[in-house]
From TrEMBL:
InterPro entries per the UniProt record, alphabetical: RNA_pol_sigma-70-like, RNA_pol_sigma-70_dom, RNA_pol_sigma70_r2, RNA_pol_sigma70_r4, RNA_pol_sigma_r2, RNA_pol_sigma_r3/r4-like, WH-like_DNA-bd_sf
Family, as annotated: Belongs to the sigma-70 factor family. ECF subfamily.
Pfam families: Sigma70_r2, Sigma70_r4
Cross-referenced SUPFAM superfamilies: Sigma2 domain of RNA polymerase sigma factors, Sigma3 and sigma4 domains of RNA polymerase sigma factors
Keywords (A to Z) from UniProt: DNA-binding, Sigma factor, Transcription, Transcription regulation
Name of protein: RNA polymerase sigma factor
RNA polymerase sigma-70 region domain ranges (all copies): 27-93, 134-182
Protein origin, superkingdom: Bacteria
Length: 188
């Protein structure tokens, strides 16, 4: 069985509903990173996040029939499952007891917490005018960044939606991110 390299969302959903394992592998390969990012922001610890991401994909596999196009996109549905699973996990008594028993230096010095702080600070940038920084990008770069990071499109979906080659999308996104880095590091 050869791996699947590209699936349109409708096809992916249909194959998942038929319990196609290659479609599930495709789903995991293309969405695990984004879902993991949502989870780690809630649970704060890699060990917890690893457990939750596994539970999230089992839940997606077992409940794909409940997905409805009328309520939104597959990505949004999966993000909601991940967020709720992470919150439920943190609220569980076992996790709360584990956190109470963890020594203070372990919590304060963990690199995961430092990474979380950077992530949280980056998210706050939206509230302090990051959208206005996007205005400094070329229009063709700005639309790609908005679609990828604010609307949750994959690069292949962007290419299909804008009718441009995937390689062009990848090159423009990379260029836009490099330019954003320069903008953000300019002296004020």
């Amino acid at each position: 069985m050869s791996p699947i390299h590209y699936l349109a969302e409708d096809t992916l959903i249909d194959l998942l509903k038929k319990k196609d394992r290659r479609a599930f592998n495709y789903l995991y390969d293309h969405y695990a990173g984004a879902l993991y990012g949502v989870i780690i922001r809630v649970v704060l610890h890699k060990n917890y996040a690893d457990e939750v991401i596994q539970n999230v994909f089992v839940s997606i596999w077992n409940h794909i029939e409940s997905f409805s196009h009328e309520r939104g996109r597959l990505y949004t549905w999966m993000i909601n499952i991940a967020r709720h699973a992470a919150i439920d996990y943190i609220k569980s008594k076992a996790v709360q007891n584990d956190q109470k028993n963890q020594s203070l230096p372990d919590v304060v010095n963990s690199s995961e917490n430092h990474n979380f702080a950077r992530t949280e600070q980056a998210e706050r940038s939206d509230y302090i005018g990051f959208k206005s920084i996007l205005e400094k990008l070329k229009p063709e770069w700005k639309v790609l960044i908005e679609m990828a990071y604010y609307e949750g499109y994959s690069q292949q979906e962007i290419a299909d939606h804008l009718n441009i080659p995937l390689g062009t999308v990848k090159t423009r996104v990379r260029s836009a991110l490099l330019h954003l880095r320069e903008i953000l590091h300019e002296p004020q």
